[in-house]
Amino acid sequence: MEWKVVVANTGEGSITIIDFKNDYEIKDISFISLLDKAKGIDICLDNQPIGPWDIALDREKNKIYLANAYNNSISKIDMNKMNIESILAVGKFPSTIKIYDGFIFVLNEDSNSISIVDKKSFNLIGNISVGDKPEDMEIYNFSKKIFIANGNGHSVDIIDLENNKKEKLILSNNPIRLCLEKEYMYILSHSNESFSEHSNISIVRLDNLSIVKSLDIEGVCNNMLKLREKNILFLTSLQDGHLYKVDLKANKIIKKIYLEGMPNKIFWDGNKSLLITNTSKDILTIFNIFNNKVIKNIKVGSEPNGLIIIK
């Protein structure tokens, strides 16, 4: 594997850069150290933690954008020079950040909104209201639409960027994660029943928003990843420390792997490996999807969350 991984460490306000082509060489960089050498940046932190939560990569410019959940900002970092170019205030608790068509879209959980930032000027140009407690956002390039999982709203908001229209998919459960592939949307939800120990996966056709499959999963899952062009889903559980492997064709869990701690966000390298952040163990787990075994655990910063892969 000849690439690098950048991990956002929420707990200590830092990023960890892991060089996979040089024997997993690790470099930890604190946000404060980047601020100390930055010039012309005027931001007041008020002694508050920064909380980098999610990352987006601009491959063309080799820059990364951090969504800083605790101080309600996003920052632009030049990966070549390793310095902060700019910081911009957005909504409350920005938790998801995406780059699309010359714009940066930031999902603000506590403001129930999306901040729209012009990537070139790095200026805030608009806000879109969404449902209650939005927890995830995906942008579907094919249809130029944004999909938002309203974690306390029993719904998914769908924003048509091309036609400036909005519609809402009403659900029986509260959605927390979305995956989009071809003509389908995969939705991970939590049951509305009190003290429920179940999660739900719904598969929705994107053309008519009809639910074509609904699968209840035993256990409270918090993140989801679908392997492209395969009938396999992976789920993580902060509650019991497991990674679940789900066969969508067989409609069941086919493997349950104990990873310890609190495995959280899942990423796929497009080949044989999953990368899983573990927020209580402060590690990045490299997992082989073919033999269902952990390849390596790599120590990172405190409370790792989002990451990007630079190939």
TrEMBL record:
Tell me the organism's taxonomic lineage. Bacteria, Bacillati, Bacillota, Tissierellia, Tissierellales
Q: Which superkingdom is the protein from?
A: Bacteria
Descriptive protein name? YncE family protein
SUPFAM superfamilies noted in UniProt: Nitrous oxide reductase, N-terminal domain
InterPro entries reported in the protein's UniProt record: Host-pathogen_enzymatic-act, N2O_reductase_N, WD40/YVTN_repeat-like_dom_sf
